Structures are given as C-alpha cells and as structure tokens.
C-alpha cells in the first residue's frame, strides 16, 4: 500500500500505478448495482461492440450477439452515484498533487462504464488514449476503477511501462493509430507488458500516452470498470474539437 506521493512517483516513472482499495466495498457495491441495472435495461447512451467491430465483435447490431454492450457512455450524467465518484475529493486530492493544480474531469473522453462480456467482448489492441484527443498539453491522467476482479483471463488491462515517455515514430502505428504488433521495432516494447491483477475497489491511475491493451474475457461473468479522464486546469481542450464539445468539471482538492 504505497502512500500517494510514492504512487505519484511510480505514475511519473512507469506511466501507470495501482492504488489498492481506493474505493470502499460499500461504494463499489453501490456503483456496480447501478451499472448492472443500466446494462440489463440498455439505458442510453450506449456503445455496442458491433459499433467498433474490433476483433471478436459481432458484424453488426443485427447479427448474433449484436447487442452486446461495450460501454455505458456518459457516466457522469447517468446517476448521482457515478457523478459523486467522478468528482470524489480523494481523486481531486491525488490528482491535485500530481498536476500541482486543480484537476478537471473531462465529460467527453472515457466518462463511461467499460464492460467486457464473455461472449462477443472484443479484443483491444495496443494504443495511447491521446490519439484522438485534442488538448493544449498531453499530460492527462485517467482513473480505472475495478468493480470486480480483473486479470488477463477476463480481459484486464495490460500496460507497457515507460511507454508514456517514449518518442515513437508514425510508422510504428497503423492507420487507426494502434501500435503495430507486427513491426519488429515494437517487439521489445510489447515484451515489457504487464497485466496488474485488480480486485474490486482498486484504481489504476494511468497516463494518456501509456500504451495499453486488453484481451477477451474467458470467464463466465461480465467485467465492469468505471473510467474517467482528467486534465490540469491550465490545460484546455482545443476550440472546435470534440474534446471541447462539453464542459469539464473542476474537482475539489480538499475534503468538504
């Protein structure tokens, strides 16, 4: 159980860090209950696996498994419990120490419940989240709250340590900006990958430039994770871009 300053040092060096038992069992249970209800009732807005058609996804929404959910979008506005978590003062304190200023929640990027279904839950290739984001700086951090156990076997995230600080060449990525696993110059990086095992309540803080990926879910239970992205107040979404399409939410950096 590292102290926050030690966790921040690991994030700066490795590009990700796990904060164990950051959320209480009661908080996790309440959040999971809402997520499961919205998943069961297909409460919009939703992104389906068939929408992205990553490897393992159905061909279309009309195909078998076509209504397999990938993400419950717009988490901050879905339920007060999700909003409370996204703007939790402990997250604000942690990120305030990392950024050295007030952190701001992006309501555009991530801001969702990520699901990984045993059937039709697609693979996600190596990528950096910043690839489609437009900000005045690239020092953004995401939080990934496990709402249940996460391992490589059920599609847990794998990370490549140190990749957030690397200067990769354009040819190391494909046209969709995935880090190519067929490029010889990428092999050494991919060999470094680690998949931290998470328990319910664990939070991964990871940098938007850290390469990460996820396999399919070989278990018999849907995996649920709550994901949000934050930037320092001095970092602004670029006008006219999708990143600026909705206002951000400044977080408190001290307990009420």
Provide structural commentary.
- InterPro entries: Phytyl_CoA_dOase-like.
- Residues 235-256 are annotated as: Disordered.
- With 256 residues, the protein is an alpha+beta fold.
- It has one domain (4-250): Jelly Rolls (Sandwich).
- Helix content is 23%, strand content 21%.
- The chain contains seven helices and twelve strands.
- It has helices at 4-14, 25-40, 49-52, 75-78, 80-86, 89-99, 187-191, and strands at residues 16-19, 46-48, 69-72, 103-106, 112-116, 124-127, 141-146, 157-159, 203-207, 212-214, 223-232, 249-250.
- The strands form two sheets. Strands 1, 2, 3, 4, 5, 7, 9, 11 and 12 form a nine-stranded antiparallel β-sheet that branches. It has a three-stranded antiparallel β-sheet with strand order 6-10-8, with no helix packed on it.
**Arithmetic mean pLDDT:** 95
Poorly predicted regions are: none
Order of helices and strands: HEHEHEHHHEEEEEHEEEE
For the CA atoms, what is the radius of gyration?
Answer: 17 Å
What's the number of helices?
7
For the largest beta-sheet, the strand count, sense and barrel status come to: 9 strands, antiparallel
Q: Which second-level CATH architecture applies?
A: Sandwich
Q: How many strand units? A: 12
Taking the alpha carbons of the first and last residues, their distance comes to: 25 Å
CATH-wise, what's the superfamily? q2cbj1_9rhob like domain
CATH class: Mainly Beta
Estimate nothing, just give the exact number of structural domains.
1
Proportion of beta-strand residues = 15-25%
Helical fraction equals 10-25%
């Amino acid at each position: 159980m590292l102290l926050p300053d030690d966790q921040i040092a690991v994030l700066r060096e490795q590009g990700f860090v796990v904060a164990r038992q950051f959320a209480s069992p009661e908080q996790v249970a309440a959040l999971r209950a809402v997520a499961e209800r919205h998943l069961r009732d297909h409460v919009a807005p939703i992104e389906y696996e068939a929408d992205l058609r990553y490897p393992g996804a159905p061909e279309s929404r009309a195909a078998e498994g076509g209504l397999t959910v990938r993400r419950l979008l717009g988490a901050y506005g879905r339920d007060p419990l999700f909003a409370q978590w996204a703007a939790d003062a402990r997250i604000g304190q942690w990120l305030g120490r990392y950024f050295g200023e007030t952190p701001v929640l992006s309501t555009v990027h991530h801001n969702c419940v990520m699901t990984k279904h045993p059937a039709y839950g697609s693979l996600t290739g190596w990528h950096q989240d910043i690839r489609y984001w437009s900000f005045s700086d690239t020092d953004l951090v995401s939080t990934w709250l496990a709402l249940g156990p996460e391992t490589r076997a059920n599609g847990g995230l794998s990370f490549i340590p140190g990749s957030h600080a690397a200067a990769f060449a354009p040819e190391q990525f494909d046209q969709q900006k995935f880090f190519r696993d067929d490029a010889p110059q990428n092999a050494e990086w991919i060999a470094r990958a680690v998949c931290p095992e998470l328990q319910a309540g664990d939070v991964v803080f990871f940098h938007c430039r850290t390469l990460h990926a996820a396999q399919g879910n070989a278990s018999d239970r849907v995996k649920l994770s709550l994901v949000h992205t934050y930037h320092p107040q001095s970092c602004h979404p670029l006008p006219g871009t999708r990143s600026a399409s909705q206002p951000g939410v400044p977080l408190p950096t001290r307990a009420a």
